[in-house]
């Protein structure tokens, strides 16, 4: 794959393809996944998208500054919601955050259209970034509702200690209480 550029900044083919390496477009390396969301391709791909968005946004100012700020917030919202949703234990909560991430990706696409229509970004960069967004949205759509994906692991439930607690609570409630003395 030939080298591309976004906003005048060269981008490696590895970032565009979002291979299973743990490197980001700025050269930062993550040697191994630390959290479970680090293993998700959609998370790493969304981080690559954020890096490219920031690279282009550096040149946006003046009339484009409001769209730039909105774009960067929406772009950052994608991996943030993926990570938070992946850490949820209930499928309903997890899907809600993944759906928010998908909505943020769609927001990014429309903000890019606004920037392209007002000559904030060139058509080639817009098209490349939209292809990344399409892949992110597709991946999120497939993840929503699936129960067999990587998610944060919780502590193991210790049933024995739960029963010990309940027994102690029961014994306390049913201890022999001294009879109130009747004086009178």
Plain-language structure description:
This protein is mostly helical. It has one domain: de novo design (two linked rop proteins) (Up-down Bundle), CATH 1.20.1440.60. The protein is 58% helix and 3% strand. The protein is built from 6 helices and 2 strands; from the N terminus they run ββαααααα. The chain has a two-stranded antiparallel ribbon with strand order 1-2. Strand 1 (4-6) and strand 2 (9-11) form a beta hairpin. The protein is elongated and about 95 Å long. Residues 12-22 and 155-159 have low confidence and may be disordered.
> How much helical structure, as a percent, in the residues?
55-70%
The biggest beta sheet is recorded as: 2 strands, antiparallel
The CATH topology annotation reads as: de novo design (two linked rop proteins)
CATH class category: Mainly Alpha
Q: Mean pLDDT, rounded to whole units? A: 78
Number of structurally distinct domains:
1
Radius of gyration: 25 Å
* Number of contiguous helices: 6
CATH architecture: Up-down Bundle
User: Which segments are poorly predicted (pLDDT under 50) over 5 or more consecutive residues?
Assistant: 12-22, 155-159
| Annotation, overall tally of beta strands | 2
Secondary-structure element order, N to C: EEHHHHHH
Organism: Rhodopirellula maiorica SM1
Pfam families: 23S_rRNA_IVP
Protein name: S23 ribosomal protein
Region (Disordered): 156-184
Summed up:
This protein is mostly helical and 184 residues long. The protein is built from six helices and two strands, in the order ββαααααα. Helix content is 58%, strand content 3%.
């Amino acid at each position: 794959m030939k080298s591309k550029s976004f906003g005048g900044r060269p981008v490696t083919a590895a970032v565009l393809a979002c291979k299973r390496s743990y490197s980001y477009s700025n050269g930062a390396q993550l040697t191994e996944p630390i959290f479970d969301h680090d293993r998700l391709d959609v998370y790493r791909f969304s981080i690559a998208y954020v890096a490219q968005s920031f690279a282009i946004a550096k040149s946006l100012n003046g009339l484009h500054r409001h769209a730039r700020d909105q774009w960067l917030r929406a772009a950052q919202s994608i991996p943030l919601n993926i990570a938070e949703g992946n850490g949820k234990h209930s499928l309903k909560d997890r899907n809600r955050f993944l759906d928010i991430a998908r909505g943020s990706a769609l927001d990014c696409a429309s903000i890019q259209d606004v920037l392209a229509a007002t000559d904030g970004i060139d058509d080639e960069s817009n098209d490349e970034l939209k292809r990344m967004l399409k892949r992110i949205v597709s991946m999120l759509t497939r993840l929503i509702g699936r129960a067999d994906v990587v998610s944060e692991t919780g502590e193991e439930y210790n049933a024995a200690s739960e029963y010990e607690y309940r027994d102690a609570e029961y014994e306390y409630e049913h201890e022999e209480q001294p009879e109130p003395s009747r004086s009178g």
